Every structure is written in C-alpha cells, then in structure tokens.
Amino acid sequence: MTQARTEWIDKWVRGRLGDVVIVETRDPMLVWQSGFPPVYGFARDEVADGVLRPASAAAYAGGFFFGPHLPVREWYDVVAGDDVVECGAWSLEDLPDRVMLTWEPGVLTWTEDEEVVAGHPRDPHKRVETLRSARHVSVTIGTEVVAESDRPVLLLETNLPTRYYLPREDVRLDLLSATDNVSMCPYKGTTGAYWSYPGPPELRNVAWSYAEPKPAVAEVADRVAFYNELVDLRVDGVLLERPESPFSKVEQRPGGE
C-alpha cells in the first residue's frame, strides 16, 4: 500500500473557520498523499477543543482534489460555533495520530506566519520562476489560431509543463467567452479571469489570467495562458506534444493552475 510521505518544516500555521482559529502549530508536519500537493498533518492537541466531532456523513462532499487520497482511518466534522464542515477532517490509516483538514476554497482560511495561503500548503521542494522571451508562440484550437505572440513570458513550475503567458493584445479574446471560474494557487495567487472556447471543440476554462499575481511571478500580470494539454501550441514553429498532467482532461482539472 502506498504510504504518506512526511516532512517537518519551520512555519507558524493557523487555520480558521470563520473568525475562529481552530488549529494552530509552530511545528507543522507536511504530508504528501499519492502524488498530490501536500497538506498539513496536525497533532490532536494542535486542534482546538470541540472542533472535531464524529462525522455525520460517510465521506467528504467537497472537490476530489481537496480531500484525502489514501485510505481513511476516521472522518470528523469540523465545528466552530454555528459553522460546520461535514467530513472536513480525517486521519489516515498509516498516520492515525495525525489529523488533516480540508483546503477546499472558501471553507477554511489558512495562514503561514502572517501570509494567507490558499489551495494547498507550499511545497518546499517546488520551484516557480518566470522568464521573458522572444520565442514565437502560437495557440490553435481546432482550425482557429486564437493567439500569436513574439513576447511571451514563460512560467516554469516543478512537475508542470512550461506555461506561455501572452499579452492580451496578442490573444483573440473575441473568439473566447469569459466565465466566472476562479482558482487559487499558493505560488501564483488568485486568478482574475478565465475564458472558454465555444467550439468546436468546446473547451471550458481553457485560458486564464492573473490580475495581481504573487510577487515572485509578477511578470505574468494581466497576461493570458492556455492549457498546453488541451490546445495545439507551437513554439518557433514547432508543434509541442500535449503533456499529461492533472489538467489533461477538462473534467479532471482541479480548478487551479
């Protein structure tokens, strides 16, 4: 059976439900579950009294990306005053003395020291950087060229394909439809916009932009990127092979990029 990988890190971590701090530690354990981004595994005494109660449901009802990915030993509801998150916490069979809590957007608020972090804890082994480039990049969906630019900013992120962020004026936004989708990334921030391609083929939320990205990737602000996994992307005339990643299928995308 696949086991969780763990590592201790030096951060002051707090989780809030509403305005109430329900979990706090200055000695956090990161837990990786079957190739997914890490979560924190808390000791029982790091969770406030009365926050965990026996679960009222059989399993977490939130998004698959934000629940457990290894066999669960026990489910808990998370409670603070009148706020209740059903099955919002769990322990794993191979970590019975630790409790994980959901990072589903809009449920709990998490801080690492005094900085709000969303999506999942930052992985200390992950690198994110940007590079300004003069490569010629074109994006085709079906037979339609929807973007073409000689001014991309490349975003390189560990374990994900290179993303090409293009100036808005180099993207045929008239061919795309704005959506109300929002995603959060602990490294890049909260997206400011998403677009779908109406088809054929229809591709939901195939492109996105950050209005106010994190300082480390400030170069991508207001630029537009497309999922390499879903479009035909050419760099200096060479068609790139579509990569396999958690974003390879529309229905499997976990709502963050």
Task: Write the SSE topology.
Layout: E1 5-8, E2 13-17, E3 20-25, E4 29-32, E5 39-43, E6 52-54, E7 72-80, E8 83-92, E9 95-101, E10 109-112, E11 115-117, E12 128-132, E13 137-141, E14 144-149, E15 153-157, E16 163-165, E17 177-179, E18 184-185, E19 189-190, E20 193-197, E21 203-209, E22 224-226, E23 232-235, E24 238-239
Antiparallel strand pairs: 1-4, 2-3, 2-10, 4-5, 5-9, 6-7, 7-8, 8-9, 10-11, 12-15, 13-14, 13-23, 15-16, 17-20, 18-19, 20-21, 21-22, 23-24
Description:
- With 257 residues, the chain is an all-beta fold.
- The chain has 2 domains: 5-117, Beta Complex (Metal Binding Protein, Guanine Nucleotide Exchange Factor, Chain A), CATH 2.170.150; 128-252, Metal Binding Protein, Guanine Nucleotide Exchange Factor, Chain A.
- The chain is built from no helices and 24 strands.
- It has strands at 5-8, 13-17, 20-25, 29-32, 39-43, 52-54, 72-80, 83-92, 95-101, 109-112, 115-117, 128-132, 137-141, 144-149, 153-157, 163-165, 177-179, 184-185, 189-190, 193-197, 203-209, 224-226, 232-235, 238-239.
- The strands form 6 sheets. Strands 1-4-5-9-8-7-6 form a 7-stranded antiparallel sheet, with no helix packed on it.
- A hairpin with a 2-residue loop joins strand 7 (72-80) and strand 8.
- The two termini are 29 Å apart.
